[in-house]
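Entry type: protein chain
Record version: 2
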Amino acid sequence: MRSRTLALAAAGAALLATTLPATAQGATVPGAPVPGAAAARASAARMSVAGPPAAGAPATAPEGSVGAAELLAKVTSCDQISHGRYRTDAGAPPTVPVCGANGAVFWKADLDIDCDGRRGRLCNKRTDPWFQPDTRFHQSDDRPLDAEKLPYVVVPNPSPVWDYRAAGIEGGGVAAVIHGDKVVYAVVGDTGPASSIGEASYATAKALGINPSPRSGGAESDVTYILFKGAQAEPIEDHGAAVALGDTLAQRFLANN
């Protein structure tokens, strides 16, 4: 698990305050299905979080119609688009490139737990020594995202190595996060240190069957992040919207790569 420091968090916050907008809203992909109330209710049932951080998490129902093996078969080689590589842990050598594909970018790294955002029973300063009460992108009501309940991924702050915005990635954009045989659709919800990569919310880890504890959880390796370009879940906090849109984008990704 990467050791985050308060200095890094403060530096990242200072950079973000001067470079990026306060909230994330945008249009969905043309032709993508618009999730209805049933999808939202199913989403709420799937993503309810109960109980304290544990050594692992129970299996969850598959999301969408595209399997992990199908997606992983399309990201076996890397057309590097980053001008350098990222670290997975503070002090580790930079080994992770950002790769380009038709309609997406991707990388393969570890998964560190981001518990930032709205304070809750599982994500707060007591449970997470690195806790920050905000996320780079906000809900439709302008409140920070809820890491306990919403699957979201973290992208590095823009730097000479890579700028996610220039690659067509925005707050609320949809990502397929893959670990083992599980696929979870998440939104781009937060930003992190400009030199590191491989981080996602408590809810993302739990849905993947990874220990979600911000102190002792995460995965050391073998997590693949596929971020689809030019499409956003609306509203950003609706996991059902991310699943519906993500499934459409994943099918398109398979067809075009």
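Comment: The CA atoms of residues 71 and 254 lie 7 Å apart.
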